[in-house]
Amino acid sequence: MKKRLGSVQKVSSFDLMPDRMIAKKYRVLSQLGAGWEGEVYKILEVNTKIERAAKLFFPQRNIRNKTSKRNAQKLHKLRYCPILIQYHTEEELIYKKMPVTVLISEYVEGQLLSEFLKSLPGKRMDPYQALHLLYALVKGVEEIHLLNEYHGDLHTDNIIVNKFGLRFELKLVDLFHHTAPKNKTRQIDILALIQIFHECMGGQKWYAKMPQPAKYICCGLKGSLILKKFPTASQLREHLEQMEWMGTGA
Ligand SMILES: Nc1ncnc2c1ncn2[C@@H]1O[C@H](COP(=O)(O)OP(=O)(O)O)[C@@H](O)[C@H]1O
Ligand SMILES: [Mg+2]
User: Fold this and answer.
1) Which of 52, 78, 106 is the last residue of a domain?
2) pLDDT of the residue at 191
3) CB–CB of 9/3 below 8 Å?
4) 56 CA distance to ligand 2 middle (Å)
């Protein structure tokens, strides 16, 4: 579907069919997701038979390639942060005679955190397990913050989870650009981490039953209290490494 928007064609969905080629190199396998900026497909690099992911940007969300360029540059700058997906290259797709920018990155296997939660009994984690997830997230995000950057859109649909025993292996997708000052954007990440922790334990409905050390971290989701206790991701990580945990009871 497309509509005119000033001089830019507005696209609300590309709906690429399986087997469609991108830049003569990649074959579409399936759609992985869609959102505000565009659509993401699982693709096959035909020559190497390597699976990758392709993010197609809606032209109206990517005027003069600003969004895609910022995304690619930031992923490149943060390429040694293991919690982020690896960016490979930029390509172009012609869709209904329009040039569409496509970012190719690694394809990450696993489940979205939102789906993982839905698959659990009671659709929530044991608080101690949620604490392990939070720890893995905080360590990953801390590295991004120490490079003076931020993620900007942390929520359960932007986190891909693989679980091995106690350990969570996580990958973050979908960086978001905020116009706020950098220290504010890092605070947005910290608040989002606590919000995710809270959601993993069942959210507001289960708050009263959460163990005291979990409540200490959540601060009733009051932003100012959270940031007073944990002004940086490093401080939150240190807290998790040193805290006392009395068990899972109320
Ligand atoms: N590199 C990837 N590997 C596997 N799945 C991905 C990858 N990137 C995105 N996805 C999937 O596609 C969905 C949408 O991608 P995302 O980058 O979050 O775009 P949007 O801006 O549309 O939210 C994600 O929620 C995830 O399920
Ligand atoms: Mg997303």
Assistant:
1) 106
2) 98
3) yes
4) 13
Query: Is the overall model pTM greater than 0.70, yes or no?
Result: yes
* Domain shared by 158 and 44, yes or no: no
Per-residue pLDDT tens for 78-108? Answer: 999 999 999 999 999 999 999 999 999 999 9
CA distance 39 to 35: 6
Q: How far is the CA of 173 from the centre of ligand 2 (A)?
A: 7
Query: What is the distance in A from the centroid of ligand 2 to the CA of 58?
Result: 14
Structural domain containing residue 15? 2-106
Q: What residues does ligand 1 touch, defined as CB less than 6 Å away?
A: 32-38, 40, 53, 55, 85, 105-108, 112, 157-158, 173-174
Same domain (yes/no): 11, 59: yes
Would you say 208 and 178 are in contact if contact means Cβ atoms under 8 Å apart?
A: no
Residue 149 sits in the same domain as residue 95: no
| Long-range pairs for 77-80: beta carbons < 8 A, 24 or more residues apart | 77/147, 77/149, 78/144, 78/147, 78/149
